[in-house]
Amino acid sequence: MYKALSGVLGLLMLLSPSSTCAAGTTAEVPAQVWSFKGLFGTFSRPSLQRGYQVYNEVCAGCHGLRLVAYRNLAEIGFSEKQVKKIAASMTVKDGPNDEGEMFERPGRSSDRFVSPFPNKQAARSANNGAYPPDLSLIVKARIGGADYLYSLLTGYKEPKKVTEVPEGMYYNLYYPGQLIAMPSPLSEDGVEYADKTKATVDQMARDVTTFLAWTAEPELESRKRTGVKVLLFLIILTGMLYAVKRKIWANIH
Amino acid sequence: MSKIGSSNPVIKWIDHRLPVFTFMQHELHEYPTPKNLNYFWNFGSLAGIILVTMIVTGIVLSMHYTAHVDYAFDSVERIMRDVNYGWLIRYVHMNGASAFFVVVFIHIFRGLYYGSYKAPRELLWMLGVVILLLMMATAFLGYVLPWGQMSFWGATVITNLFSAIPFVGEPIVTWLWGGFSVDNATLNRFFSLHFLLPFVIVGVVVLHIVALHTHGSNNPVGISIKNNDDQIPFHPYYTIKDLFGLGVFLVVFSWFVFYAPNYLGHPDNYIQADPLQTPPHIVPEWYFLPFYAILRSITFDILFLEAKLLGVIAMFASIAILFILPWLDRSPVRSARFRPVYRQFFWILVIDCVILGIVGANSPDDPVFSGAKWFQYIHLGMISTAYYFFHFLILLPLLSIFEKTNPLPTSINEPVLGGGKATAMAAAKPMEKA
């Protein structure tokens, strides 16, 4: 049975590429090198902080980050004081107060990121009918993940073939269907990095993708750290169980 | 009656009034087991352990989950972000569902290969099929709870299947939904039922084990235990073997939980459900893909029966057929080791099921090979669906009559013929089995 089983597994591997169906004409997303990939992956702190800056200065005008709280920024290396300052710069609608009125107050660290639009309709209305999605989970919510997001941000190329690009739409090599309502968000020196890194489009795309990979999976570092310990423990335990099994079964055959 | 080895007076006192210790002694310690079980017999106890894991993680998750269309998605994200080790509990539960199906599918195919469904184990087998059905229902209900795009649209597609029932279809769907679309009432009842069904599974599992312990395990040679040389006590031999198997399983499972937790999921389920926006491809979880392929393979009406209804019937029949399997396969030989023809067809069936899974993952209209546009997945699906039913309904009854089986060994302990060699070799090199 074992021999035949391996034959079936081999056949399965042969067939499986056909199951990962390619979506139409959209270009294949090239794999990138990320600090958070691999068994021991961690988020590069400088890149995370630059990425936050890009999000804040470029993306936040249209895209929310509603699942992330300002206090979470402490996890990527901002000091408590910096976090408080970032939060306080935002206006949060709160209430009702004792008089039953809603009121506005400066943000606190415990608040979640304030979204740029109060609701979907307002977002659509301000963006030509297109809805800028919330970015909290975007890296997990797209096939290709971080590689896709990076490719999308750097994929505003001239169309190879003559493609009719309608008014208010933009050509993007990696967007499904290749026509996207978001204009190219990144331009050379679009932000002035606090750490003086040169703000090329490539650099900004990498940084903001790293930042959004963190917002999608803030548990990634502790998950991978725990995973190494768990796997080491289990492999040793299983090896010992195998030795015990051999010993117990020794007199059977 | 009390044969327990303990001289502890407290244990003796209890056991005289409530023989739990005698029971455990009987069923977990002395329980006679064939000595030649291979590693494919590990998957039953493994499935039981996963069931318990799913219930424990599920109960913890339910303490933090909110079953409401406005809060469900966010409450799951709160578990992932703010609950202590919430990400671990959720990823174990999420990947645990996939692991459960992997283990149970192997368990079922083990039964098919070694003829574990044959007399006197027909009811044991049928109870297993009931467990499979309950598992599928539970998994489907659970997948809806995070209220992502695939949750919502999957629920819409699957519940709509019931509208294919003639005359009463539409009212039944409305009744299932608790409204006129998949909405809050649907989510609430799905949560309630998802909480209930695992305990029903536990009940059926108990019956499954009672039935198992009545006649004991089948074994790779498929002949019954004849004397004491054929059997060994369950403990310590199979307890340690099961524990070692559990260790191997946990290594693989942990790799998924810690390093590829979303590998088996669909990215669209990290987008909150939106009834106004249909995803480009609605695909079920991987373990439903073969059944999904069968459902979509019936594209033609037969007389007054519509294609949609026939698809639903075919899908349910693909599992229902397992209930009557013990009466379709009348061959007196259990193990495929001594059935040279059945053995070939068994592997063809395995390949057929894998192909059905691949068909289920692809759009019906896409060509299978880029070179041949006329041969689409829908055609491959039709062929493999037809073969699936052909295997059970025609091939097995015919094989029971015409197959010339190989001679069986005289006993498990002294397998002198054909299969004996394989057993002895496998026993000599246990490393290869893992």
CATH topology of the largest domain in chain B: Cytochrome Bc1 Complex, Chain C
Question: What would you say the CATH architecture of the largest domain in chain B is?
Answer: Up-down Bundle
| SSE sequence of chain A, one letter per element | HHHEEHHEEHH
Question: What is the average per-residue confidence, as pLDDT of chain A, rounded to a whole number?
Answer: 90
What oligomeric state do the depicted chains represent?
A: heterodimer
Count of helical stretches of chain B: 16
Q: What summary fits the major beta sheet of chain B?
A: 2 strands, antiparallel
- Which percent band covers the strand fraction of chain B? under 5%
Question: Any idea how many domains of chain A?
Answer: 2
Estimated helix fraction of chain B: 55-70%
Return Rg of chain A in Å: 24 Å
| CATH fold description of the largest domain in chain A | Cytochrome Bc1 Complex, Chain D, domain 2
> Biggest sheet of chain A: strands side by side, in what order?
1-2
Kindly state the mean pLDDT of chain B as a whole number?
93
Q: Report the uncertain regions of chain B.
A: 416-434
Short description:
The complex is a heterodimer of chains A (253) and B (434). Chain A is built from 7 helices and 4 strands.
Tags for this entry?
heterodimer, A: 253 residues, Cytochrome Bc1 Complex, Chain D, domain 2, 2 domains, two-stranded antiparallel sheet, 40% helix, globular, B: 434 residues, mainly alpha, Cytochrome Bc1 Complex, Chain C, two-stranded antiparallel ribbon, 3% strand, disordered C terminus
Outline the fold blueprint:
The complex is a heterodimer of chains A (253) and B (434).
Chain A: H1 2-15, H2 45-59, H3 80-88, E1 91-94, E2 103-106, H4 120-126, H5 145-153, E3 170-171, E4 179-180, H6 201-216, H7 220-249
Antiparallel strand pairs in A: 1-2, 3-4
Helix pairs in contact in A: 2-6, 5-6
Chain B: H1 9-17, H2 20-30, E1 32-34, H3 43-62, H4 72-81, H5 86-114, H6 122-144, H7 149-160, H8 169-177, H9 184-215, E2 231-233, H10 234-259, H11 289-297, H12 307-323, H13 325-328, H14 340-361, E3 367-369, E4 372-376, H15 377-402, H16 419-428
Antiparallel strand pairs in B: 1-2, 3-4
